[in-house]
Amino acid sequence: MTNAHGDFIWYELWTSDPDAAAGFYGGVLGWQATPVEGSAIGYRLLGPGQAAVAGLMEVPRDAAAAGASPRWLGYVGVDDVDRAAAAVLREGGAQHVPPTDIPGIGRFALLADPQGILFYLMRGAGEAASTAFAPDRPGHCHWNELSTPDPAAALAFYGGLFGWAPGDAMPMGELGEYRFLVQSGRTIGAMMPRLPQGAASWRFYFGVADIDAAAAAVAGHGGAVLHGPAEVPGGLFVIQARDPQGAAFGLVGQRRPGG
């Protein structure tokens, strides 16, 4: 794996209806869904053209039995999955899937941070660098946002685990602050206090060419726009949305003239 320790290298959608989800994201982001040959769980690759940025699968049976709902999850690349997983447990996190090999793909584990928010660790088997997180490429992830009940504890946890550093912050009044996250000198996302009635989770924002057209596509394909389009620094606009199966996600892009 050529990505640096602490890079986001993959994204994954757990859904209750893989066929419907593939159609939805195809309509909104132009993603193609490609079945993985020989996959016992019907895993599919999602992405624009030949570039895969995410995986698609049905909510795992044991997770569904425990109450898990459709959601997006992120994979963070690490130098040593076993060592990183042990560090998560030492710092008060939990392990849902122990370090496990996927032949020809890599080694992964599914963990939760001390606030109970799920994320994956992975060490890829190949030498090619992941471009799943690529803020300059439409259809790829442009922003990784953590909503947590304890931002200070989360910052210490992820900083110690991945080397993420705190960047600038934007005040949110009584709600606290929106704190940027910096990895190897590059801003990769942010963390914020969980909003009232909001979920503690990661939300991933995927890039689009026209935010208004994308918002219309979300609604037109059975999803819901929860917030936005709202302007953010850099002259971009974001929406927060929910797909027809209930998974939360975000989109980011420019507003075209007349939008």
From TrEMBL:
| InterPro entries (UniProt xref) | Anthracycline_SecMetBiosynth (IPR052164), Glyas_Bleomycin-R_OHBP_Dase (IPR029068), Glyas_Fos-R_dOase_dom (IPR004360), VOC_core (IPR037523)
The residue ranges of the VOC domain are 7-124, 137-254
Pfam family membership, one: Glyoxalase
What domain of life is recorded for the organism? Bacteria
Query: Which CDD domains does this entry report, sorted A to Z?
Result: SgaA_N_like
Name the UniProt record assigns to this protein: VOC family protein
Q: Which organism is it from?
A: Roseicella frigidaeris
